[in-house]
Structures are given as C-alpha cells and as structure tokens.
Design a protein that fits this description.
Elements lengths: L1 H4 L2 H8 L4 H39 L4 H10 L3 H29 L6
Helix pairs in contact: 2-3, 3-4, 3-5, 4-5
Length: 110
C-alpha cells in the first residue's frame, strides 16, 4: 500500500482535489489488492495440500483423512473422487480469483 501511495496517479488524484478517503479507496486500495488476491489464490492450493498432513498428524476427521484412509484400503474410486473434488475446489477458487481481478482492476475486462 505504501508503494501505491507514492505513485503518480495517486498524486494526480490528490492534486485534482479529491478527498483523501476517495483517493485511498478508489485509487490506491484497488491497485494494492491485486497482489494480495494473487497470493491468496496461490496459497489456497498449498492450504489444501497442508490439510492432508495436518489431518493425518492430529487425527482430525476431514476430506484429507478420507483421502488417506481410501489410499490405505486401496479404494481407488474413493481416492479418485476425493482428488477430483479437491481439484475442482482449487479450480473454482482460481476462477473466483480471476473474476475478482476484473472487479478490482478496471483494465482487466473480458
């Protein structure tokens, strides 16, 4: 956010006489959110991978525990279904991140 506040378009918005609140919300915050949304989308896939380890170590019930159990009992259909579900879930999160780009940044329109 500090880097964005020092850019030329924020200085131009301030020189136009816009209120500081509008400068921060409309100009600075929208452009500062783009890397945050990107990192959120990337970290979500890592979170799903870490859930397998966490649920196994702490014996928590969940989809990752079901994945490990189906692997242990060699239930290939359950294993494929669980992996497909996680894949669709991660893909949906990536789609939401891409759609948020068009909301946050007006230059990205499809």
């Amino acid at each position: 956010m500090l880097e964005v506040l020092d850019t030329e378009y924020v200085t131009t918005a301030r020189s136009k006489g816009l209120a500081e609140r509008l400068v921060i919300l409309r100009h600075a915050l929208r452009n500062a959110l783009i890397p945050i949304v990107t990192v959120f989308g990337l970290q979500f896939a890592m979170l799903m991978g870490g859930a397998v380890l966490t649920e196994t170590v702490f014996s928590w019930p969940g989809i990752a525990g079901f994945l490990i159990q189906s692997l242990y009992y060699r239930d290939w259909w359950a294993l494929q279904g669980t992996i497909a579900f996680i894949g669709v879930f991660v893909t949906t999160v990536n789609l939401v991140v891409d759609l948020l780009y068009s909301v946050i940044d007006p230059r990205v329109r499809y």
